[in-house]
Fold this sequence. Notes:
The protein is mainly α and 157 residues long. Helices cover 62% and strands 5% of the residues. The protein has helices at 3-27, 32-52, 58-83, 104-129; strands at residues 97-98, 102-103, 148-149, 155-156. A two-stranded antiparallel sheet has the order 1-2. The two termini are 20 Å apart.
Amino acid sequence: MSRQRIEYFTVFIVGAFGYGLIELFVRGRTHxxxxxxxxxxxxxIHTLGNRRRNGMLILTxxxxxxxxxxxxxxxxxxxxxxxxxxxxxxxxNLSFNLRGQICAEYSLKWVLxxxxxxxxxxxxRKALFKSDIFILNKSRLHMPLMFHRQKGGNIYE
Length: 157
């Protein structure tokens, strides 16, 4: 198996178990589909981490991730909750919801979860894949404090 496949598999597993644990802690229950969504979200966050190394702002990355999570949550909710009737979650009682599957409140929460995911991705890269960690610079939120350059001047791990 290639290094990249191992990396993606690891990131997916961390996201799947991580989000499942968050659900257990917050809601007291979870569903296998939430683990799969957590893994998919973490893979998306991981790709955003690559883009951050090339200048993407952390806020842009967090908002992009939250939009991704909200879109995937909606599609998954339509299939699992409405079409199959599994009733895994229901936001019908919350303001600004769409068919009870997504709502403004949780979309904003996904921004915070995404920020945590971006930080967790950096820890994974450093601890497991020996990449330089991409720490926030207080003066410019998209510049690394530690990095090395490959040929061509691009900033990579």
